[in-house]
């Protein structure tokens, strides 16, 4: 695999862009490096902390800190009280991941044949920086449906295992997911040096931590079809999301004899988000995760550990704190969640439609307005693109993120106001999406130069019109 420096290329439109060239390495600034090392060292403990506080402190985030401060508890005593790795959890997790691999690799999609409007089966990804267009077997919706049908059949008829199985093994499963997360990230790291899928699409920096965390290979694959990014993000992570929530609801039923309206809201709102993801899996191939990010610890460990454990904190919280919401509160949460989802989906849909039809479509009943842009690709070729300035994309530059944040806030608000624990999600999503917005805009500014400036003049706000 070649090393790649960024080399500055002056564009026809008077701005510079950064391109990779073979043969040298890119420098990492000290700030990025510190952030990478900090995340590598703290993220696994943060996940442990949020799960452990529910197990030992009824989800109170401050209680363990108070006890540590007063000497009532020590880090060692907290650690020793936490359930450890078990072979039962290892078996459950092995069966789970293997089953998802089988569904991903061995069951070609048939749902697109009878679901109108659904784009499944073999689909093209976006062009990689080296100019490749990868093919993907889009069968996530089918995997989700089969998995959930089996879950339902087990709960209703077969009774092979209890529906609370995930909750009952939650911390032992945390160790198993960490093992897979580190194995996958380390494998992807070593693979990039020894047998990269496409050497031209590798990105090396001069720093080993940065390479490990942000990834070297763009689209690592085993064989022709096992794509690391698509599999790890979607399958063990997002298919599991709704099952984890169902397991929490089953636990509430077992412990209290009823399921709270807050738990139902969290299950329903998050299931809409998950189903939306799988319904639009082909569209996902064109998002930043697949189009721009390389596969390293950030995606590998994040998909295996961070996503299933921290995206499901609300359900976990509600097992320990069975909040029953007033009708008005529940209605407000539902409304916020649905409006957020509408803004998120419609914004993404408008851009997708606009780009697919090259602007020859109708947005909010009118022909969309746009700015014509030019940019150069890595091979020096001049290309043209369009940035829409009407519809949601004329209100702010990233209303899809705003809608996502409204939905995230709704999940948290469904848990009431007893503890800050379930609100970690909205804090995290705000940091993630604001950072992503800044990162994306930096890239777009390098790519489109003065045309991007024209766009930001026409649409001055990022997430909240008049504020940010
Ligand atoms: P976007 O779908 O917003 O894509 C950004 C790209 O769109 C830009 O790089 C640019 O690409 C193009 N673009 C920007 N402005 C315009 C415009 N006005 N008209 C046309 N094209 C434009 O970003 P993401 O891929 O990050 O997000 C996709 C969705 O996934 C979002 O809704 C986000 O909320 C969600 N998401 C959720 C996460 C979660 O953990 N829950 C994590 C990350 C994302 P180009 O170079 O082609 O011009």
UniProtKB/TrEMBL annotation:
The processes (GO biological process) annotated in the record are:
brassinosteroid biosynthetic process; cholesterol biosynthetic process
Residue ranges crossing the lipid bilayer per the database entry: 30-53, 255-275, 295-320, 326-344
Q: Does the keyword Ion transport apply?
A: no
Q: What pathway does the annotation place this protein in?
A: Steroid biosynthesis; cholesterol biosynthesis
The protein's topology relative to the membrane is: Multi-pass membrane protein
What general EC class does the enzyme of this chain belong to? oxidoreductase
Keyword Transmembrane helix in the entry? The reply is yes
Family annotation (InterPro entries): ERG24_DHCR-like, Sterol_reductase_CS
Keywords (alphabetical) are: Cholesterol biosynthesis, Cholesterol metabolism, Endoplasmic reticulum, Lipid biosynthesis, Lipid metabolism, Membrane, NADP, Oxidoreductase, Steroid biosynthesis, Steroid metabolism, Sterol biosynthesis, Sterol metabolism, Transmembrane, Transmembrane helix
The record's EC number reads 1.3.1.21
Top-rank taxon, per record: Eukaryota
| Cellular-component GO terms for this entry | endoplasmic reticulum membrane
Q: Which GO terms describe its molecular function?
A: 7-dehydrocholesterol reductase activity
Q: Which Gene3D superfamilies match?
A: 1.20.120.1630
Compartments, as annotated in UniProt: Endoplasmic reticulum membrane
The UniProt catalytic activity note for this protein reads: cholesterol + NADP(+) = 7-dehydrocholesterol + NADPH + H(+); 7-dehydrodesmosterol + NADPH + H(+) = desmosterol + NADP(+)
- Check the record and name the PANTHER family matching this protein: 7-DEHYDROCHOLESTEROL REDUCTASE, DELTA(14)-STEROL REDUCTASE
Biological role stated in the UniProt entry: Catalyzes the last step of the cholesterol synthesis pathway, which transforms cholesta-5,7-dien-3beta-ol (7-dehydrocholesterol,7-DHC) into cholesterol by reducing the C7-C8 double bond of its sterol core. Can also metabolize cholesta-5,7,24-trien-3beta-ol (7-dehydrodemosterol, 7-DHD) to desmosterol, which is then metabolized by the Delta(24)-sterol reductase (DHCR24) to cholesterol.
**According to its UniProt record, which protein family does this protein belong to?**
Belongs to the ERG4/ERG24 family.
User: Mind telling me what this protein is named?
Assistant: 7-dehydrocholesterol reductase
Q: Which organism is it from?
A: Oncorhynchus mykiss (Rainbow trout)
Q: What is the lineage of its organism?
A: Eukaryota, Metazoa, Chordata, Craniata, Vertebrata
């Amino acid at each position: 695999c070649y090393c790649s420096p960024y080399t500055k290329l002056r564009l026809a439109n008077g701005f510079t862009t950064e391109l990779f060239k073979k043969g040298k390495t890119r420098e990492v600034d000290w700030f990025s490096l510190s952030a990478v090392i900090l995340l590598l060292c703290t993220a696994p403990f943060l996940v442990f902390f949020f799960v452990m506080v529910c197990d030992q402190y009824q989800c109170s985030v401050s209680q363990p800190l108070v006890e540590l401060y007063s000497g009532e508890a020590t880090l060692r005593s907290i650690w020793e009280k936490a359930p450890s790795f078990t072979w039962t959890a290892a078996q459950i997790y092995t069966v789970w991941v293997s089953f998802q691999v089988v569904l991903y690799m061995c069951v070609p999609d048939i749902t697109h044949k009878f679901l109108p409007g659904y784009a499944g089966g073999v689909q093209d990804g976006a062009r990689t920086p080296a100019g490749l267009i990868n093919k993907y077997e889009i069968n996530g919706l089918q995997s989700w449906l089969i998995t959930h049908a089996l879950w339902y059949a087990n709960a209703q008829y077969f009774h092979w295992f209890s529906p609370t199985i995930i909750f009952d093994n939650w911390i032992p499963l945390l160790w198993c997911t960490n093992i897979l997360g580190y194995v996958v990230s380390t494998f992807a790291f070593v693979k990039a040096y020894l047998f990269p899928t496409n050497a031209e699409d590798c990105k090396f920096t001069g720093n080993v931590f940065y390479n490990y965390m942000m990834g070297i290979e763009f689209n690592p694959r085993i064989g022709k079809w096992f794509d690391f990014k698509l599999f790890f993000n979607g399958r063990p992570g997002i298919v599991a999301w709704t099952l984890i929530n169902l397991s929490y609801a089953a636990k509430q039923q077992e412990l209290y004899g009823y399921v709270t309206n807050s738990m139902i809201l969290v299950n329903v709102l998050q299931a809409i988000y998950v189903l939306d993801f799988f319904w639009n899996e082909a569209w996902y191939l064109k998002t930043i995760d697949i189009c721009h990010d390389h596969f390293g610890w950030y995606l590998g460990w994040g998909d295996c550990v961070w996503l299933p454990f921290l995206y499901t904190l609300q359900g976990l919280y509600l097992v320990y704190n069975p909040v029953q919401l007033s009708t008005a509160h529940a209605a407000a949460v539902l409304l916020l969640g649905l409006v957020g989802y509408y803004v998120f989906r419609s914004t993404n849909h408008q851009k997708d439609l606009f780009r697919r039809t090259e602007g020859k479509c109708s947005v909010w009943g009118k022909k969309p307005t746009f700015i014509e842009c030019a940019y150069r690709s890595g091979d020096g070729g001049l290309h043209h693109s369009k940035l829409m300035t009407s519809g949601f994309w004329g209100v702010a530059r990233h209303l899809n993120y705003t809608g996502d944040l409204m939905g995230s806030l709704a999940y948290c608000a469904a848990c009431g106001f007893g503890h800050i624990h379930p609100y970690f999600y909205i804090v995290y999503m705000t940091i993630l999406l604001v950072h992503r917005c800044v990162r994306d805009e930096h890239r777009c500014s390098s790519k489109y130069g003065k045309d991007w400036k024209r766009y930001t003049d026409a649409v001055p706000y990022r997430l909240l019109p008049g504020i940010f």
